[in-house]
UniProtKB/TrEMBL annotation:
Coiled coil: 49-101
Record keyword Signal present: yes
Database matches in Gene3D superfamilies: Glucose Permease (Domain IIA) (2.70.70.10)
Residue stretches spanning the membrane: 27-48
Designated name of the protein: Peptidoglycan DD-metalloendopeptidase family protein
Organism expressing this protein natively: Campylobacter vicugnae
Source species, domain of life: Bacteria
Any single Pfam family the record assigns to this protein: Peptidase_M23
CDD domains: M23_peptidase
Listed InterPro entries: Cell_wall_metabolism_enzyme, Dup_hybrid_motif, M23ase_b-sheet_dom
Keywords: Coiled coil, Membrane, Signal, Transmembrane, Transmembrane helix
Limits of the M23ase beta-sheet core domain: 162-259
Amino acid sequence: MKDKIVITITDVNGSRNYLLSQVLKKIFIYVVAVVLLVFVFGALYMGYLQDETNALRETKEELISSSENLNIEYEKMKQKLSTKEEELMAIEDKISLLEEQIGLNDDVNSTTIDDRLEQIKLTVEQQNIIFSMIPNGKVMEDGGVTASFGWRTHPVLGHKHLHQGIDLRAPIGTPVYAPADGVVQVAGFNIVSGYGYLVVLEHNFGFKTRFAHLSRRDVVKEGQFVKKGDLIGYSGNTGISTGPHLHYEIRFVQRPLDPANFINWNRKNYEEIFQKEKRVSWQSLVKAVANLTLKQP
């Protein structure tokens, strides 16, 4: 007869005897039951995770497919807009050429500008108004002009067009300043025109300035008022560009003007602008400024 190990447990209710083999058997049954439960619940949870993973994978594939379709549509729209932009630019160039050919670029009363200006004695206060409201002076520390205002062959696109501003050579990150008081009309990346990151300022008396190929920094926002000399951006190489530079435009009621005349304009050569830039009705503008100061108390 084999020896058996007996475990005796005594409490207030008396003594109870248990065979060790029976205790081990119960423990084993409990352990197996727990392991089975863990395995079942684990299998169910793994199945749930697998279903969630498959659902997320399907959602990801759908999003990727939608993104690709949106990119295709975006490229199509971008191409259409680029075509329209080129057509508009070509029409604008033709209009400018026709204006030059028939003499619409010149002020119809240019022969009498000097006589009319002499009739108005501009005070220092009136000159201050003009130089604060009309673009003048340098807009940045540049390394010279790389492309002047006028007709040329586009360096990238290859077609002849009217270069409606001047290109100023400058390292990327050169500060650009407002040439006159005004309000920010545009501040953002221009996709279709090739200007890249563009800032447009609207000034008084119908003048407007454009600053193209800027670095993509949100220095100013649309609707923001700026004073002459305020920082409006930094030079860059965005858009259709062959190298770091600033493309600077000045317009008067949508007529492109040569910015070089205004960059070199100061109090010492105050009246030279009236002869150099004849697309502006200077005599009426000066009278308006004179009347403005006369009405002030």
